[in-house]
Amino acid sequence: MANKWFETVAVAQRRAQKRLPKSVYGALIAGSEKGLTSRDNLESFDQLGLSPHIAGLPRERHLATTVMGQSLSMPVLLSPTGVQAVHPDGEVAVARAGANRGVAMGLSSFASKSVEEVCAVNDQVFFQLYWSGDRDTLLQRLDRAKTAGAKGVILTLDWSFSNGRDWGSPWIPEKIDLRAALKLTPEALSRPGWFLSFLRSGHLPDLTTPNMAPPGTKPPTFFGAYYEWMQSALPTWEDVAWLRAQWDGPFMVKGVGRVDDAKRVVDLGATALSVSNHGGNNVDGTFAPVRLLPGIVDAVDGQIEVLLDGGVRRGSDVVKALALGARAVMIGRAYLWGLAVNGQAGVENVLDVLRTGIDSTLLGLGKSSIAELARDDVWAPPDFFRTFPQ
Q1: How far apart are CA 92 and CA 83, in angstroms?
Q2: Which of 31, 161, 247, 288 has the highest CB neighbour count under 10 A?
Q3: Residue 276 in contact with residue 326, Cβ under 8 Å?
Q4: Contact criterion met (CB below 8 Å) for 389 and 259
Q5: DSSP letter assigned to residue 177
Q6: Which residues pair with 125 in a beta bridge?
Q7: What DSSP character marks residue 298?
Q8: Measured between alpha carbons, how far is 367 from 352 in angstroms, rounded to an integer?
Q9: Distance (Å, whole) CA 115 – CA 313
């Protein structure tokens, strides 16, 4: 593909599907069970309407904001996603793209690149944790992230329930050994460009998780890390408050979908919360974050920064979320498509697409700044929004 530039995230996804082995692509698009929630994450944005002006529009628009103390060029963060083996450079390429575009990055504890490597190329990194292992293990990971230069912590609590898929889950090997290589050979040969990119890099797709390794030990595979998480005791609210107290900087709780949970997050002293359902990989039938956003924003009443994570594919989606009260949005699959297509440049391409879309939507709405957005800038059909508990 001579010209790897794409003009929309949808085009990036189509190109990623053509480039990636079927099982790799399948792992990225999957939601839990029937996929009701993963579809609603996308389709809910389509139901929200905008009404642009035609004259008296602002000559300049301001997109910059701050999130958890970090200055961002636009209200978009790169959400943490695990084992970014869609490209040889993985999370390092994503981090460089974020740094070049003035965007902060969330780094998964299940990442294929270490927090030290990523913080070395982006000084706006938020380190993401699952409640995995005992308290001493969690403290080791926090200390390591702080030493590496992480500016904040994201505690993910919205991936704890269902992972069954009605259409079947793609086979993912425990590690890339001879047996796995032979089994994957037909897929690799069907996508020679993707396979050759790893050969040129000098290594096969890395399925280890270096950020989950205790000091001086061999990094576990993704499934080894997953097993540790599955065997860990589920956190209580007291556990979450304890973990927050161990980190003296910005702290986000990701996965909030209920007003009562949002208020508990405020009470424990978190800096931010993310309205999220883990991209549709939580309980299927959970409503899309954008449906839940205004109720949570109203409930916390400015006491905490509120972000949205789920279903964002266009700049107009970002504007809709901001108008409904989000301080910023987090993107996951959208930048993974770009990474798969063209590495660092592909992630930058996705960020540029979103920036252009935000700017043009602000222009049409007659807004000179994202700070001017309000709920009456967005039309929603009757019964669109949801608030829990009732």
Answers
A1: 11
A2: 288
A3: no
A4: yes
A5: -
A6: 105
A7: H
A8: 20
A9: 27
**Cross-strand partners of 128:** 154
Pair type for strands 328-331 and 152-156: unpaired
Q: What is the pLDDT of residues 158-187, one digit of tens each?
A: 876 666 788 777 766 666 665 666 676 777
Which residue shows structure tokens 């509120």? 306
Q: How many CB atoms lie under 10 A from the CB of residue 263? A: 16
For residue 378, report the phi and psi dihedrals to the nearest 5 degrees.
-120, 135
Element (H, E) at 273: strand 272-276
Angle, alpha carbons 288-294-298 (nearest 5°): 140
pTM of the predicted protein model = 0.94
> 298-354, pLDDT tens digit by residue?
999 999 999 999 999 999 999 999 999 999 999 999 999 999 999 999 999 999 999
Supply the residues annotated as catalytic: 278
Token pair listed for 82: 């695990």
Distance CA(144)–CA(169), nearest Å, equals 34
Specify whether the CB–CB gap between 375 and 324 falls below 8 A. yes
Contact residues for 94 (Cβ-Cβ < 8 A; gap 6+): 78, 84, 105, 335, 339, 344, 347
End-to-end CA distance of the chain: 52
Which residues, other chains included, contact 86 with Cβ-Cβ below 8 Å and sequence gap of 6+?
Answer: 16, 20, 24, 28, 336, 339, 340
- Give strand pairing partners of 165: 33
